[in-house]
Amino acid sequence: MITPRDFAKTPAPITPTEQRAINVYANLMVEIRDRVSAIQALFGEQIDLSNVVRFECAFLQTRMILETLALACLVAHGDLKEMKSSGLRKAYQADIIVKKMDLLHPDFFPVPHIVTVDDGVQLSGRKTYHFEESSAASLTKADIISMYGKLGNRLHRGSLKALNRKSGDPEKDINDTFDFLERLMALLGNHHIMTMARKTVFVCSIPDPTVGDVRVLFAAVTSDRSGNNLGGLLIAEQSD
Predict the structure, then answer these.
(1) C-alpha distances out from residue 86 to 96, 103, 127, Å
(2) H-helix segments, the chain
(3) pLDDT for 219-231, tens place per residue?
(4) Does this model's pTM top 0.85?
(5) Left, alpha or beta for 125 (phi > 0: left; psi -120 to 50: alpha)?
(6) DSSP-derived 3-state class of residue 152
(7) Are strands 111-118 and 128-133 parallel, antiparallel or unpaired?
């Protein structure tokens, strides 16, 4: 469970290394959003495909989303010394990354949140953001591992013996696909990732493409010194 910690009242300036990580993380979130849009378009009236090809395209994009999400978790934890000796820097398989990261830092995974803003009562007048973990159903680490393997099996044409087997259920595949997209965005739409040192977090917002751009912040974490029971993270706004 992520808990608030005490830090200096003035957040440290963002380093060039941290800024590069922010930029890469943001680009990966944009890529995920683009792949979600591609899956949605596959099931629209504008694209005329057979069910087999339509679902293969959707399965491929879903698998790529899982890999991109796993890589984003690595980007957010570039400060982990163990990454160099664990082979994670060369890994691309989502299930392997999730399993190894879970051993190194159980809180490595995105946490979906709901945000409330305090415009200056805390921390000498600086704006603060209170993050309450969302209770909406979202993708879990276990989901990533199980789904990645299943999708890999679905993306192989199969053997001659498999030709006599009954094909998949299109209605179930559609329901499963859109359930995945719903839980994915419940996880990533507004989320944060705690770094290993627990002093900073990546904070990300992924709005609909028609609404705005993906936004990623790197913020210092502080406890609430006023005695208020916020029940969540209190993050001080980074100074410019």
Answers:
(1) 11, 11, 39
(2) 16-42, 51-76, 82-86, 94-104, 141-154, 170-188
(3) 776 654 444 333 3
(4) no
(5) left
(6) helix
(7) antiparallel
